[in-house]
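Protein 1 of 2
SEQ + STRUCT:
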Amino acid sequence: MKNNGITYLILTSILLVIITILVYFNTNFPLVFYLTFLGQCLLIYSVYRILTDNYNTKRTFKDWYEDYPHNKEDY
């Protein structure tokens, strides 16, 4: 499986939900603290991976939006 930035962002979101559940059930503080620290590091890494991802597209600004075409001939 190719681990791109979105995969790390999904893992970060899952970790955030797990931390919220652990806080709700009054889990001990060190576990929540270290998972929060791990989540912050994972968030920074996922943002880095998204910004440095080698993503290429053939679309330009002249293509405008897909759901609202800019050219009259696309109607």
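Protein 2 of 2
SEQ + STRUCT:
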Amino acid sequence: MYYRFGKAFHFLSVLFFLVSFLYIYSALPDLVTYELNEEGLSEKFISKSTFFYSGIIFFLIMNLILITPGKMIENQSTPNLKRLFPMGDQFRDYILTWIYSFVGVINVSLSILGLFIHSINNQNEIASGDFAFFFYLVPIFFVVWIVGLFWIIIKKFKSIQNQG
């Protein structure tokens, strides 16, 4: 049941990424800077269209790769997954919630990365220091979700040991 919240969060994160990425794309110059030197001058850059297409392709590939295990568990694609996460098992719900919400966290992190690129290229409008809080959220999100995964795995192993 909880995994539906994870799916909803994933869907909202996809919408958030698409809207923010399109907004950021529209505000970028023709040459997009993605690295600055010590003096704050552009050191590495790519064209705006390359940034757009590579960003969208990376987003799609990441989502497809990371959602596939959740879909396999949800559809019970293999006998091992059926045995490990049977229908009605609370850990099946937990792991599906974790997978979908983790992909949502990845999408939000990609949006924050886009915001960083936007702040580098529009320093006269936006100072990257104004968004420092958001940049620190990315590793915090990852740590929290990885700890959650280990908690789910430990609980699953304990339940397997108690059954045996």
